[in-house]
Amino acid sequence: MLKEYHDRQFIIDKQNWRIVSVEEGFGLNREVPLGETNKVVVHWVGRPDLVVVENSRLTPVDHKTVTRINGDTSTKYKPSTQMAGYTYSCEVIAKSLGYDVRVDRCIVNICARTRPADKPRDGKVRPRFIRAYPNFTREEIAEWRLDVVHKCERIAECLRTNAWCWAETSCHNFYNRDCDFLKLDSSTPSARDVVLAADFEVGVPWKPYEVVKED
Ligand code: SF4
């Protein structure tokens, strides 16, 4: 895959992209305020794979690996909280650094694990690498911010009341497989502590990145 990627994409990107950052985390210092209500204050955190300048446009890039590329692969990245978040944050951070830029899209760099068939049954030979360019207007970004703030309000309410609504429609179709908590939530409430102790390990909370303290 890397050899093909190099020959088909890298040589072009080398000419067209100026790399600004690689896997740089942001947000844990509250650099990207998203919204505030009387219940929550929300800041966005993320770590884009790349930020590049392409044709004078500052643009976040996210790499995605898929099994194979088909006709609707490039439409799967909008709506997308992740892509809207990168787009919004990139502009906020650039402006805070003194750059008067408008960021209105992401590049999703999509690679297929499987080499496309030379003679597919439907006759459409697919590429192995494609790019999607989900773009976001100011109005869409404003809607996304509001949506995230509302979600955070709901999470805050769950934490405050310790009442967690189940989504039973997802139990047997969580990313096309059974949810990992199926056995736990199928047991009687008084048995759940035993199931938890027997079947689960407490993981280390995910950290998007380490904050580097500057001198
Ligand atoms: S099994 Fe999973 S999807 Fe179903 S209610 Fe429990 S946590 Fe939600």
Attribute tags:
single chain; 215 residues; alpha+beta; five-stranded mixed sheet; 5 helices; 7 strands; 32% helix; binds iron/sulfur cluster
Commentary on this structure:
This protein is about 30% helix and about 20% strand. Helix 2 packs across helix 3. A hairpin with a 2-residue loop joins strand 4 (about 50-55) and strand 5 (about 55-65). The chain contains five helices and seven strands. The chain has helices spanning about 1-15, 80-95, 140-160, 180-185, 190-200; strands at about 15-20, 35, 40-45, 50-55, 55-65, 105-110, 130. It has one domain: Lambda Exonuclease, Chain A, CATH 3.90.320. It starts with a helix and ends in a 16-residue tail after the last helix. The longest helix has 24 residues, at about 140-160. With about 220 residues, it is an alpha+beta fold. The protein has a five-stranded mixed β-sheet with strand order 1-4-5-6-7, with helices on both faces. The chain has a two-stranded antiparallel ribbon with strand order 2-3. Iron/sulfur cluster binds near residues 171, 181 and 182.
